[in-house]
Amino acid sequence: MVSNPERRAALVDAGVEVLAREGARGLTFRAVDAEAGVPVGTASNYFTGRADLLRQIDTRLHTRLAPDPDVVAELMTRPRDRSLVTAFMYDLMARATRDRTGYLALMELRLEATRRPELLASYTKSVRGDLEEAMEFHRTAGLPGGDESVAVLYLAMLGLLLEHLTLPGVLEGVLPGVSVPDGLVERIVATVLPEGQAGQAGEV
C-alpha cells in the first residue's frame, strides 16, 4: 500500500462524497478516483478493497462530525441545566446540517453494514462507542438526567436528523407553531428531561 497520508485523506473524503451521492453500489475505486481528480488506479494503491475503504470512511466521518472542542469548552461554562442539554442538541443538529454529505454517508454505511458482516461488526462497535462516550460525558459533566435520558435523546435525535436531512417535508407543520428543526429539538429535550428532573444530574 502507498503511504501518503494527505492523498489517502483526500481519497477517503472523495469516497464520502461518492457514498452520499451514489450509495454503496456506486462506491467504486474508479468513482473515487474521478471524484478526487486523480489518475485511474490511484485508489486501488491505497485501499485493499471496498471493505477497507468503507472502514476508513467510517473512521473519517467520526472525525468530521465530532464536536468542536472550542464549542464544547464554551458551552461548558454555562449552568448545568436543561438549557445546556438543549444547546448540545442544537450543536449536534448544526454539525449534521453543515456536513449533510457526511451524515448521509453515515446513513449509507448503516445500510451497507446490514449486507456486510465484517462492516457490521466494526460499525456497530464505533457507533456503540459513540453512545457510551456520550453517556460518560453526560455523567462527568453533571448534566441533568442519566444514561436512560441520554439513550432516549440519542434515539429521538437520530430520528429527527434522519427526517430533516432526507425528507424534511415530513416534519414541516406536523406540530403547528413548532419550528423545524429547532422547535422540535426543544420539544425533544423538554419531553426527555421534564422540569422536575432538571436537578437530578447523574441519575440513571
UniProtKB/TrEMBL annotation:
Organism: Streptomyces coeruleofuscus
Organism domain of life: Bacteria
InterPro entries per the UniProt record, alphabetical: Homeodomain-like_sf, HTH_TetR, TetR_C_31
Domain HTH tetR-type, residue spans: 5-65
Pfam families: TetR_C_31 (PF17940), TetR_N (PF00440)
Residues that span the membrane, as ranges: none
Protein name: TetR/AcrR family transcriptional regulator
DNA-binding region ranges: 28-47
Keyword DNA repair set for record: no
SUPFAM superfamilies: Homeodomain-like
UniProtKB keywords: DNA-binding
